[in-house]
Amino acid sequence: IDMAMELIAKIRDLKKQMNVVVLGHNYMTPDVFYGVSDFIGDSLGLARKAAETEADIILFNGVHFMAETAKVLNPHKTVLIADPDAGCSLAESITAEDVRGLKAQYPGAPVVTYVNCTAAVKAETDICCTSANALKVVESLDSDEIIFLPDAYLAKNVAQKTNKKIISWERGKCMVHEQFTPRDIQAARRQYGDLLVVSHPECDTPVTAESDFAGSTSQMEDVIRDSSRKNVMLITECSMADNLRAVFPEKNFVSTCQTCPHMKKITLPKVYEALLNMQYEVTVPDDIIARARKAVERMIAIG
Ligand code: 13P
Ligand code: SF4
């Protein structure tokens, strides 16, 4: 703990010396999340903060596709990530060439990309979405048939709520959320009568169907705040409950979670090194930025 406090103090000093904004995703460990962030939130909220910032440098404590999105929105700023290998199984599941193939297969169908993909994939698409606004984005499009990439389970969750035909990418799965099963929830419901079950829509539909609510990481927090139930089960990454325990000390977080090895690559010592050495800079080619930006900005405009 002493070492963590010392690092947090050093990181805060460096932040003061440089015009840097530190963004922290909800899946960061509490030391990184609460210790050094200027803004915390889900991927949509942090993309908005990245779009608004006046800082010269953005340090994104999250995974690589999130930092890339910040770069796409701020081509003239320096965007840093403390570990460039913090990837995402969804982002790795699809290439720009794959998207071009799908567009050829379904000509005329607009393409929605979940933000969990590379900037090169975003550049091939019409509009982005996150789990906070996926349905709204799909409904905003003037077409009965929509290509939705790369998360097959989020696509299934959206398909259940819209009349539009959703064409998905079967290979796209979140390696963390695909681990959960409805049985995890059923067992806990037997134990706690008043259980509030909140899951992420990157889980398969049998899991979200067993839940009281499925939504983005920040929407989860709102639902817990609005609920009078004391026992809460979060079907998502482990740090989410660790961070929310501090917000809701009166609630009992029933334990079940999976760790995202990518998110966990961002540690306090690496955040310190990132500011000390100005590493690792996230770069995206100009032509990709120009095309990907349209898709991201269109999403931000929708809200
Ligand atoms: P949110 O947009 O809900 O923050 O989710 C990002 C993510 O990677 C979930 O696994
Ligand atoms: Fe990607 Fe899943 Fe990790 Fe989120 S939790 S960054 S979707 S692998």
Automatic annotation (TrEMBL):
Residues annotated as binding iminosuccinate: 25, 43, 114-116, 131, 200-202, 217
One annotated Gene Ontology cellular component of this protein: cytosol
Gene3D superfamilies: NadA-like
Obligatory cofactor(s): [4Fe-4S] cluster
Pfam family, one: NadA
Alphabetical list of InterPro entries matching this protein: NadA (IPR003473), NadA_sf (IPR036094), Quinolinate_synth_type2 (IPR023066)
Reactions catalysed: iminosuccinate + dihydroxyacetone phosphate = quinolinate + phosphate + 2 H2O + H(+)
Pathway annotation from the record: Cofactor biosynthesis; NAD(+) biosynthesis; quinolinate from iminoaspartate: step 1/1
Subcellular location(s) of the protein: Cytoplasm
Signal sequence extent: none
BP GO annotations: 'de novo' NAD+ biosynthetic process from L-aspartate
Positions that bind [4Fe-4S] cluster: 88, 174, 260
EC number of this enzyme: 2.5.1.72
GO MF annotation list: 4 iron, 4 sulfur cluster binding; metal ion binding; quinolinate synthetase A activity
Co-factor: note: Binds 1 [4Fe-4S] cluster per subunit.
Keywords recorded for this protein, A-Z: 4Fe-4S, Cytoplasm, Iron, Iron-sulfur, Metal-binding, Pyridine nucleotide biosynthesis, Transferase
HAMAP family (alphabetical): NadA_type2
General function of this protein: Catalyzes the condensation of iminoaspartate with dihydroxyacetone phosphate to form quinolinate.
Record family assignment: Belongs to the quinolinate synthase family. Type 2 subfamily.
UniProt name for this protein: Quinolinate synthase
Organism: Spirochaeta lutea
Source species taxonomy: Bacteria, Pseudomonadati, Spirochaetota, Spirochaetia, Spirochaetales
